């Protein structure tokens, strides 16, 4: 083992005063750290053996160094981390885990330990994996900090200054005007995980930066440019703050301040715990915002369901009220037809007593009556079918999710809407073009609610077609509504395009706003598209897209997912 006064180490030159001059190369700094390690081993060290945090062995020198009377008191501690101060626990736990995994570190670590009396003391530490009782364990060697030879030869006031700097809770690095190291405290060595004795006073800053690069601090980048860039920061004489992640996992806030004599004071504050708390608070805030978003979405769904339930009850009530008079109309039309046939059978023998003109008039009247009764019966049955569709449209067991054929649902809603418009305006006709994709198949949805959406969009399309038909001066204008379904894999698109009046961008911007309507007073409530948007976007997690050109066309695209995502808000595009 090389003694403290030997000078046969590469890169290290002994000066006449017995101290070691600052090495000029990285290899010289590494050799100096190895020499310091041999000095530590030459003294009587304290020995600790532990595994998984549990102390297995402690010799008497280790107990005395830590301020305990006997090794048994150390063995009685809850774990080896009870000897470690809170701010150093993270780095020590990481070092123990690496050592237990078989990673051997040749140089010395500067660490601090909690003494029995509650004080903190600095030690030089060596870690080595060993086999203890047939299982891997950590052998920890502790020795008192050895002062550098040059420090003992300093004047007393400088020794006091060095002792004060060494006692500071933050890492301190002193640099002279030539960017060479003047001194550093133990906390600086611990935070950067530098071996004690690695960088003596006089070490150039570029040697320290090159050492950092060689151990991988700066990643896979060329050494020269990064060292030159970091060293150039000291050319600007001002206070500089920076944040750095060091190899042992700590996050440091580094503050470089110029001194009046041309040198620098570089302080290092460990902000790892603060960053961890900030990250936890940010994650907690994000979780809270996600939960709030889910609650708002759930609330919106409940509101939509309540609206749909009320609308369904209203529709069902109206349909029921209409069904009773329709039953009377249909029944009495059928009965009147039968009575007319009986009357004609009774009056048949009297035909010979009438002249030709009267007989022609009677036949004309009876033919008209029979034709009218057939029309009443036909239209009564048609109205009855419409009422039945309205009842089916409003019924559905409280908005239950069911599997429904999408093409059939769209076709049924189209027929219902067209019948309703034709009932209001007998002179209205339009060309209906159906382009149904057979691959669409069945979807899991609330059929009654989706049917309401489709009826609403169809009704608005027919309104736009009728309006343009009445106001358009083009003689060759022909109303046309194109309805298509498209299988898009995970989603299904329903496209409804009309060549009606279209919409301006200003109207599209407010299209889904509750109570907004372009229809005259009394013809629209402004709730239809708002409710439809809620059903598609919030209830079914789909999309409601609108594109339009005024006086040319309007196209609504409803996109419904085949599988409803757990948490997702749909959106609409307006083009």
Overview of the structural elements:
Its EC number is 2.7.13.3. GO terms for molecular function: ATP binding; phosphorelay sensor kinase activity. This is histidine kinase. Keywords: ATP-binding, Coiled coil, Kinase, Nucleotide-binding, Phosphoprotein, Transferase, Two-component regulatory system. This protein has about 575 residues and is of the alpha+beta class. The protein has five domains: about 5-40; about 45-145, 2-Layer Sandwich (Beta-Lactamase), CATH 3.30.450; about 150-270, PAS domain (Beta-Lactamase, 2-Layer Sandwich); about 290-395; about 400-575, Histidine kinase-like ATPase, C-terminal domain (Heat Shock Protein 90, 2-Layer Sandwich). It is about 45% helix and about 20% strand. It has helices at about 25-40, 60-65, 70-75, 90-100, 150, 155-165, 185-190, 205-215, 225-230, 270-345, 355-395, 405-425, 445-470, 505-510, 530-540, and strands at about 45-50, 55-60, 110-115, 120-130, 135-145, 170-175, 180-185, 240-245, 250-260, 265-270, 400-405, 430-435, 440-445, 480-485, 490-500, 545-550, 555-560. The chain has a five-stranded antiparallel sheet. Strands 7-6-10-9-8 form a five-stranded antiparallel sheet. The chain has a five-stranded mixed sheet with strand order 12-14-15-17-16. Helix 8 packs across helix 9 and helix 10 (about 270-345) packs antiparallel against helix 11 (about 355-395). The protein is elongated, with a radius of gyration of 45 Å. The two termini are about 80 Å apart. Mean pLDDT is about 80; it is low at about 1-20 and about 565-575.
């Amino acid at each position: 083992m090389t003694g403290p006064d030997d000078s046969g180490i590469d890169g290290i030159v002994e000066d006449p005063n017995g101290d070691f001059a600052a090495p000029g190369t990285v290899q010289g700094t590494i050799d100096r750290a190895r020499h310091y390690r041999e000095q530590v081993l030459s003294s009587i060290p304290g020995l600790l053996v532990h595994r998984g945090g549990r102390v297995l062995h402690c010799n008497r020198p280790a107990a005395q160094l830590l301020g305990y009377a006997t090794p048994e008191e150390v063995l009685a501690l809850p774990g080896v981390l009870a000897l470690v101060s809170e701010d150093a626990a993270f780095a020590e736990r990481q070092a123990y885990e690496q050592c237990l995994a078989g990673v051997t570190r040749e140089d010395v670590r500067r660490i601090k330990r909690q003494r029995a009396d509650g004080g903190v003391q600095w030690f030089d530490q060596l870690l080595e994996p060993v086999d203890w009782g047939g299982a891997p364990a950590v052998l920890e060697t502790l020795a008192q900090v050895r002062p550098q030879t040059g420090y003992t030869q300093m004047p007393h006031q400088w020794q006091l200054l060095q002792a004060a700097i060494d006692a500071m809770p933050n890492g301190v690095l002193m640099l002279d005007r030539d960017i060479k190291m003047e001194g550093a405290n133990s906390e600086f060595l611990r935070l950067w995980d530098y071996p004690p004795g690695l960088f003596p006073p006089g070490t150039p800053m570029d040697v320290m930066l090159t050492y950092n690069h060689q151990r991988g601090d700066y990643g896979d980048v060329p050494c020269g440019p990064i060292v030159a860039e970091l060293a150039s920061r000291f050319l600007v004489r001002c206070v500089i703050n920076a944040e750095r992640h060091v190899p042992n996992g700590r996050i440091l806030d580094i503050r470089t301040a110029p001194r009046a004599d041309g040198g620098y004071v570089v302080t290092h504050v460990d902000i790892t715990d603060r960053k961890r708390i900030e990250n936890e608070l940010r994650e907690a805030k994000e979780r809270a915002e996600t939960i709030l978003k889910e609650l708002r979405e759930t609330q919106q769904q409940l509101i939509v369901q309540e609206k749909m339930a009320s609308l369904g009850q209203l529709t069902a009530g109206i349909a029921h009220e209409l069904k009773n008079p329709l039953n009377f109309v249909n029944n009495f039309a059928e009965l009147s037809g039968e009575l007319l046939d009986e009357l004609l059978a009774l009056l048949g023998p009297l035909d010979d007593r009438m002249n030709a003109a009267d007989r022609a008039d009677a036949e004309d009247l009876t033919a008209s009556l029979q034709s009218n009764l057939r029309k009443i019966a036909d239209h009564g049955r048609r109205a009855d079918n419409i009422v039945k569709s309205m009842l089916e449209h409003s019924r559905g067991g409280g908005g239950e999710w069911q599997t429904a054929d999408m093409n059939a649902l769209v076709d049924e809603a189209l027929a219902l809407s067209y019948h309703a418009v034709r009932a209001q305006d007998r002179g209205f006709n339009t060309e209906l073009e159906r382009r149904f994709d057979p691959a669409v198949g069945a979807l899991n949805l609330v059929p009654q609610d989706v049917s309401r959406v489709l009826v609403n969009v169809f009704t608005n399309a027919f309104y736009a077609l009728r309006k343009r038909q009445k106001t358009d001066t083009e003689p060759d204008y022909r109303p046309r509504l194109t309805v298509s379904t498209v299988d898009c894999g995970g989603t299904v698109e329903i496209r409804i395009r009309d060549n009606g009046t279209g919409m301006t961008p200003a109207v599209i911007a407010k299209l889904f706003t509750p109570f907004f309507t372009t229809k005259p007073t009394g013809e629209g409530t402004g709730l239809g598209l708002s409710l439809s948007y809620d059903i598609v976007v919030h209830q079914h997690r789909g999309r409601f897209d609108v594109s339009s050109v005024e006086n040319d066309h309007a196209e609504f695209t409803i996109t419904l997912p085949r599988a409803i995502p757990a948490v997702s808000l749909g959106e609409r595009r307006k083009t």
